[in-house]
Amino acid sequence: PTLAEALAAPSDDELVHVARFSEAAEAFEVLFRGVEACPSTWTSIQVACTRAAIAEGTAMRTVQTSGATCRGALRAKKASMARSKDAKYTERTVVMAGNGTTQHSDHHQATRLNAKIAKNLLDSIDCFIFDCDGVIWRGDSVIEGVPQTLDMLRGLGKKMFFVTNNSTKSRKGYLKKFTDLGLDVSAEEIFSSSFAAAAYFESLQFRKKVYVIGEVGIEEELDLVGVKHLGGPADAEKKVTLAPGQKMEHDHDVGAVVVGFDRNINYYKIQYATLCIRENPGCLFVATNTDEVTHLTDAQEWAGNGSMVGAISGSTGQEPTVVGKPAPFMLKYICDKYNLRRDQICMVGDRLNTDILFGLDGGLQTLLVLSGVTTFEKLESPSNHIQPHYYANKIADMLEVQKAMA
C-alpha cells in the first residue's frame, strides 16, 4: 500500500510493510508527519516502526526524533484551530504525543448521575473498567460504598476490570492489596501499567535487556514474560562520586529503558538511563504513565510518575512511548482478549486527562468520580476541554438504582 492508503485504513500488517519499505531516515520522517492527517494511527505506526527498526537495525533515535517533529506540528494545528473564530467546536485535538491520544472536545456538559440515569447506564453497559487510586481507594483506605457497589454490579452480571497507572506492584501484588482491603477481585480482572509495560515488550518480541527505573512491580511482570532486566530497587542506594576525568560505565546490551513510579529515584538511575538512551543504538524509551500526581496516602497528593519521566525526557531530548492510560494499549489488549464491544463498556475514573481521555479515545462511555484528584470546579472550568459523559461524587452513587427500585 501507499502511505496515504496505510494512513486511511491502518492495520498492523500494512504499517509494518510501509515501515520496512521505508528504511531511510527521510522516509520515517514522512511517515510520522503523515500522522497529522490521521492522529489516531499513531500507536499502530509507532509499534510497526519499532518492530521494523528492531528487525532491520534501523536506529530508533530517528523514530523518536520524528515523533518530536510530529508533536510540534500537531500542537501548532491545535493552536490554529483554537484561534479560529469560525470554529464552533474542535472535535479532535492532540493532547499527548507518542500514542495517538486525542482529546474529544465538543464542549458538551457532563450529566450528573442520578437514579434514572444510573439505571439507563446499567441497562446499556455490560462491562465497567475502573481506575483504582481515587476511585476504589485512597492510599490504604477503601472509599465509602465501594464494596457494596462492586457486589451490586456482580449481582447484575456485569464484567469488571481494574486498570491502574500505578506500576509499583505487579498484578499479583495488586491482588494482595484488593484482598487485604476486603475486596473480592480476581487476578485476571487487574491490569496495572507494570503489566502493560511487560506486555508491550512481549508484543515487540523484545530480546535485549531493559533498564528499570521503578519498583518491584515492573520487575515481576518482566520476569513473567522472560525479559531480562537490571536497575530497579537494586540501584536504590547507588550514588555518583565525581572526580576529574571520571565517567559512568553502562551496559551496552540494554535495548530499552522503562520508567515507572520510583520512590527511590536518584541521580545514579537518571544518569544510567540517560546513557542507555543516548549511547545505545536503537534504545527504546518507555513510560508506564505520565501522571502529574498520585495518592501515596489519603492525606495529600504526591508527585507522580510524570516527574520521573520528565527527568529522563529532559536529559535525553526524547519523548517516551507511554503504555498506561490514556494510551490505547491496555484497552486494546482487554478488548481483544475478552472479545468486548467498546460501545458496551464504561470507563470510571477520577482523572480527566488519563481515565476519561482513555475512555473517550477508546469509544467508551465515561463516568468521572469526584472522589480523587478532579474537583467539580476543575470539571466546570472554562479551561477544561475534556468532558465525560457522566459525573458523580463516588461510584457508590450507582447504588441509588437500588433505592429507586425498592
Give a brief outline of the structure.
The chain is α/β, with parallel strands linked by helices and 406 residues long. Helix content is 42%, strand content 16%. It has a seven-stranded parallel sheet.
Describe what this molecule looks like in 3D.
This protein is of the alpha/beta class and 406 residues long. It is 42% helix and 16% strand. The protein has helices at 3-8, 12-21, 25-33, 42-56, 60-83, 115-124, 146-155, 171-180, 193-203, 216-224, 267-279, 305-316, 329-338, 352-361, 376-380, 400-405, and strands spanning 92-96, 101-104, 111-112, 127-130, 137-138, 141-142, 159-164, 190-192, 209-213, 229-231, 254-259, 284-287, 293-294, 302-303, 321-322, 345-349, 365-369, 390-392. The chain has a 7-stranded parallel beta sheet with strand order 3-18-17-16-4-7-8. A 5-stranded parallel beta sheet has the order 10-9-11-12-15, with helices on both faces. α2 (12-21) packs across α4 (42-56) and α11 (267-279) crosses α12. The longest helix has 24 residues, at 60-83. It is elongated. The termini are far apart. Residues 12-30, 35-44 and 53-106 have low confidence and may be disordered.
